Structure formats: C-alpha cells, structure tokens
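It would be a great kindness if you could assist me with a short task in structural biology. The matter concerns a single protein, recorded as an amino acid sequence and a row of backbone structure tokens. The record follows directly beneath this note:
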Amino acid sequence: MSDTHAASSSAFAAGQGTGATRLFIALDVDGTVLHEDGTLSLSVVDEIRRVAALGHIVTLATGRSWETTRPVLEDLGLTPEYVVCANGALVLKRNEAEEGGYERFFTETFDPTEVLLTIRSHLAEGSYMVEYPDGFRRYTAGMTDWNLDRAEEVPFEDLVTSPVTRVVVVSPSHDEADFLRIVEQMGLQQVSYAIGWTAWLDIAPKGVNKATALEHVREWLDVDRSQVIAVGDGRNDIDMLQWAGVEGRGVAMGQAPDEVREIASEVTGSVTEDGLSQLLMSISA
C-alpha cells in the first residue's frame, strides 16, 4: 500500500470513529472472504462480525449462485438486507417468509444463444453452464469442479431454452495466457464478461456487473457514496472497485492480478495473510 493510500485509509477510519454514519461494505467471496481451498479464517469471521455488530452494513457481492453463497453468509453469521450474486445479475432481499430467509428480488437476463455459439466456435472443447432466473442451472459434461446442486447435465444444444442470468465457460486445456488471448479474439458483443484466475469465463447481461447491482443496493439503502467500501481480488471485481473508489474505498487483495491492483484505490494483504481482517481492523463505530 502506498503512503497516500495509507494516509487516506487512516483519515477515513478516523472519520468513522467520530460520526454516526454507517458504512456500506461489499465483500467478494472467493479469494477475499474465503481462502483458495474454500476455508474461512477465524480472524476474518471475527472482524466481519465485529464490524457488523457496530451497525455497519456488511454484505457479499459475488459471481457465485445464491445456492453457493447462502452457506457462506450463514458461516459468517450475516443477515444483510441485500446480497449480490451472479456478478450483479441477481440481487437477493431479506424476506423471513421465504425458505432460507431471502427472495430473488432483482434479476437481469439475456438471450445466451449468440454468445454460446460464438464461444463454442473458438472453444469447441470447453464446458458450459447457464443459470436461469430461478437459480436452476444446466451444464455440459466437464463442469466437475462446480457445485451442481439444482442443476442437470444436458447436450450443448439444450442450454439455449430461455433467457439466463449468466453463462460460465471452462476450458481446462488452456493456461491463463492462452485463454486471455482466445477471449480477446472472440469479440464478444452485447454482454459483459469477466475472466477468472484460471481458464474460465463468466458472462452477464450487457452493462451488468457487481458495481451496477451494488449501486442499486446503495440507493435502496440510502447510503452516501462516500461511505462505500468494496473489497475483491478478481477481474470480475474491477468495476466494483472502481465504483467504490470514486468517493469511498475500492480495496484489492494483495494477490490480485496487476490490472485489479492498479485500478484499486488501495491494496491490503493477500488472502493467505488475512488481508480482509487487516482492512476491517481499521473500521470503528
């Protein structure tokens, strides 16, 4: 972290110690809250719970489906009013009458036909998954590393049945550099996409990302832009960190790729160093 970033963070935290305004803190999940092996650090859990107990709004903003996000919320002991999933294409709202305590409040969809055919022409050996507004998913053979609850394996042709909230493409035969090059060659149009740490691609409706969803949430909660903190480590967090950093704090994890670290307003420690805990320790009442 630069001296400028450190000074800015200290001033921000000091201001929170003397004011009654609550912060709006949006956390990426994988590589930010969770370690790469999917485990939770006790210090991360403790700091998240401490900050939430102070009255600040702490929520998750993830590329995950709701079905795989919900257990993380429960492990953290969080019950925020809104949760962002599917890279911004789905926002859940707390509703005690619903199973699991949340309802699918806001969704954005698109017709995946063109993008699936375009990608398949470049990645014939890839594996594909689509997610529908109700959370059900269809996938082709090879999606073995993904949680496949409420999902069914189908032929590629059966993926295109109705509008979806997201498309996921996995190509294990490519390394990260090759995959980046192939994706650039595709010239994808009319969608938003983010490239993962390895050879996987996450596609959302055009103009939809974590930042667009969080801006809706911020408005619904009536929180000032200056009170926003967002933390993430992946390329799908770039828009979110830029959005938060305009007036608040867009914080990259220490292990984030260079292009993520460069757009962040500050950088904390890596996930293996419990960088999220280090950041949250700067937040007071």
